[in-house]
From TrEMBL:
Record carries keyword Transmembrane: yes
Transmembrane segments: 33-57, 131-159
Higher taxonomy: Bacteria, Bacillati, Actinomycetota, Actinomycetes, Mycobacteriales
Protein's recorded name: DUF3592 domain-containing protein
Keyword annotations of the record: Membrane, Transmembrane, Transmembrane helix
Length: 168
């Protein structure tokens, strides 16, 4: 537990501030709740991004465990979701309800190859695209969340100083 002991004073200072405003005053409680709110939002955004990447890896593992490859046509291309239609070697046509994974740079009418889970053909991705593509966007969201969170905490520290100097 040596790491916890070194983080405890830092966490205490982040949550409770520098002490310019008494902890048990109304202003102290308000600042503490605001800081905790900022930390909770940043933690939730970070967790969400980690889960997004983990989900993408899970989908890739499922596809690779029983993979089929097929030619597909892009029916509707969008930034976050593109719908496709493909025919398996067994001559069964599929239109995955949730679209195709990793749909960037697709255009309506394109002919592409897809990789799909034979046991669940609704789980399909563009051929040769993997969860690695999800790391940069998810990481960018985490970085922005932490930058905004740090700025908010710095702003709350300034407010605490102003309130503290006004009280003396």
């Amino acid at each position: 537990m040596p790491h916890y002991r070194s983080l405890k004073p830092l966490l205490d200072r982040v949550v409770h501030g520098e002490g310019a405003v008494p902890r048990n005053s109304r202003a102290g409680r308000l600042l503490r709740w605001a800081r905790m709110g900022v930390l909770i939002v940043v933690a939730v955004v970070t967790l969400q991004s980690v889960l997004l990447v983990a989900g993408a890896w899970r989908n890739d593992i499922a596809i690779e465990s029983d993979m089929g490859v097929a030619a597909a046509e892009v029916l509707n291309a969008g930034f976050r979701r593109s719908t496709i239609e493909f025919v398996t070697p067994e001559r069964i046509t599929y239109r995955p309800e949730l679209g195709v994974l990793y749909p960037s740079e697709l255009a309506t009418g394109m002919r592409i190859y897809v990789e799909y889970d034979k046991s669940d053909p609704d789980l399909v991705r563009v051929q040769h695209r993997t969860a690695v593509l999800a790391v940069i966007p998810a990481g960018s969201v985490v970085v922005v969340a932490w930058l905004v969170g740090i700025a908010a905490l710095a702003g709350l520290a300034l407010i605490e100083r102003r309130w503290g100097s006004r009280g003396t």
